[in-house]
Automatic annotation (TrEMBL):
Alphabetic keyword roster: Signal
UniProt keyword annotation of Signal present: yes
Name of protein: PEP-CTERM sorting domain-containing protein
UniProt key word Repeat: no
Xref: InterPro entries: Ice-binding_C (IPR013424)
Species name: Sphingomonas pokkalii
Endpoints of the signal sequence: 1-26
Amino acid sequence: MVNFKRAIAAAALAGATLGFAGSASATTYVCDAVSSPCSFDQGTGGFSNVKVAANSAKSDLFKIAVTTPGQLILTFTSANLTFGSFSFAGTNFTPVSGNKYFFNIATAGSYDLVTNLTNSGSVVSSYSGTIDLAAVPEPAAWGMLIGGFAMGGIALRRRRATTLAIA
C-alpha cells in the first residue's frame, strides 16, 4: 500500500512539473480549405507570410490532411531566412528556396510538416510554401487501362482484310 501511495505521489509530481513547463516557440497550423495562413483543398494550397522575428529561430508545425493517395509536392520560398532541417511524414530534408520536394503518399491521412528557420537579420522576415497533390491512379484504373489496350489489340488482330478478285 505504501508503494502504491508513493507511485501516485510521484505521478502527481511529474504531472504538475510537466504542466508548468513552458511550450516550445512553435505554432501549429491545420492546412485545410479555410484555415489561415495555411490552406489546402486536396489539389493545391499553401501558406504565406509566416513571420519569423528578428534575430531568432522559429519552428512551425503544419498538419496537412490528404484524402487521396498521390504525390505531394512542397515548395518553399524566402529571401532573408536560413532554412534549417525540415521534416515531412518522418523524412528529414534541408530545403533550398524555390526547389520542389516530392513525397509519395500511399494512404489518406494527416501528415506533419515541421519547419525550422533562423532569422539572423535585424527585421522581421517571412517565408511561404506551396502544397500540390498530383493524383496517382489506383490499381483498378491501371488494370482497366491495360485491359482496354489488350482488347483493342485482340480486335485489330482478329479483323481480317477482305480482298475481292476481279477477273
